[in-house]
Design goal:
The complex is a heterodimer of chains A (196) and B (145).
Chain A lengths: L9 H19 L6 H12 L5 H10 L12 H9 L22 E5 L7 H10 L5 E5 H6 L21 E3 L6 H16 L8
Parallel strand pairs in A: 1-2, 2-3
Chain B lengths: L2 E2 L2 H11 L4 E4 L3 E4 L4 H10 L7 E9 L4 E9 L4 E9 L5 E3 L8 H12 L2 E3 L24
Parallel strand pairs in B: 1-6, 3-6, 7-8
Antiparallel strand pairs in B: 2-3, 4-5, 5-6
Classes of the chains: A mainly alpha (196), B alpha/beta (145).
């Protein structure tokens, strides 16, 4: 509001405010010049042609949300991977979901015991398609040290299908990030009609 | 620091009340007769000078010749502790349950039952804890393959 003098009264303030509002209203009612040219330019700048598969894969690639689940010490490394030092967010990997129904990626982080196996199987079954599984660490890959134990599943691929294996005991956060990037490559190759 | 009581003194106190209960003792533990466990445990818990109101840990061990159940007791009021042990044979391993005295024994007795096959008589829900129903054998026994 522009009032030239310093000792203005309240009514003068109101009048100045009213003028400014009227000016803004008048301004917004002016038709935009050259609408067609302008729209054409906008369309050319913002519309791209692509295949559906590419668009879907692009979306899935950059929003692989993992299920927030950890079975053993590998889970600590998974937490470190999503924290600020390593920061999975850079790759769109870190929105850990508390519900399997919202998750795309099941990172099996740690030793899977037979007692826990039905729960892991059920979590995997509850995840919506398309879904992927990453076996993190020696125990998840093959049972690791406990492969011949009475209580440990010798590799989670006995229970659920695995897409990516990340070796290590536990794997470094860089290794986990690299593993998810390998999964991204797999996602990019999906076709539109692929069901599973 | 919690003061560990000398096993010999505790054994003496127990023997005054229950002459048949104590089988052996060391500097750090007291070995009792399984048949007398409940009354000894009740005495250790209720006696005002001892007042072992907290069961820190209950565990079991296989020594090949016999199985051993270990009770680690602590008194919150006096801040002292003692270790109570009892032995049973591999074949007839039945021990009275102390869940009625210390509720914390519930899961730990189930664990010992699960992994060592020691039956705790009087436990309200004695079934496997870490392994699944239908598992054959008790894996922490030395003769388990």
């Amino acid at each position: 509001m522009e009032i030239d003098k310093l000792d203005y009264s309240l009514s003068e303030f109101d009048i100045a405010e009213g003028k400014q509002i009227e000016a803004l209203r008048a301004e917004c009612r002016q038709p935009i010049e050259g609408t067609e040219e302008w729209l054409d330019k906008e369309v050319r700048q913002n519309v791209i042609m692509s295949s559906i598969a590419k668009v879907l894969n692009w979306g899935r690639h950059y929003s692989t949300w993992p299920l927030g689940s950890g079975l053993a010490c590998c889970a600590m490394e998974m937490v470190a991977t999503s924290s600020s030092r390593f920061d999975m967010t850079r790759f769109g990997m870190d929105v850990f979901r508390a519900s399997p129904r919202q998750a795309d990626l099941f990172i099996v982080a740690g030793t899977l015991t037979w007692k826990m196996a039905p729960a892991v199987r059920r979590l995997w079954e509850q995840m919506a398609e398309p879904k992927w599984v990453l076996a993190m660490g020696a125990c998840a890959i093959s049972g690791g040290t406990f492969a011949h134990s009475y209580s440990v599943v010798p590799g989670v691929n006995r229970i659920i299908p695995v897409d990516v294996y990340v070796p290590g005991c536990p794997p470094r956060p860089e290794a986990l990030i690299y593993g998810v990037m390998m999964l991204h490559k797999k996602i990019d190759k999906r076709s539109f009609r692929q069901q599973d | 620091m919690t003061k560990p009581l000398v096993g010999e003194e505790i054994a003496k106190q127990i023997s005054e009340h229950f002459p048949q209960a104590v089988v052996g003792f060391d500097r750090s533990w007291v070995l009792v007769n399984p048949a007398a466990l409940l009354e000894v445990a009740q005495f250790l818990k209720d006696s005002p000078d001892l007042d072992f109101d907290y069961l820190t840990c209950l565990t079991g061990t296989d020594y090949l010749d016999y199985l051993e159940v270990v009770y680690m007791l602590t008194s919150m009021r006096h801040n002292h502790s003692v270790v109570l042990k009892l032995r049973c044979t591999r074949d007839t391993c039945e021990v009275p349950s102390v869940v009625g005295l210390w509720r914390g024994a519930d899961f730990q007795e189930r664990e010992v039952y699960d992994l060592l096959g020691i039956t705790f008589v009087g436990h309200p829900n004695l079934k496997r804890l870490f392994l699944w129903d239908g598992f054959q054998g008790h894996p922490l026994r030395r003769d388990y393959l």
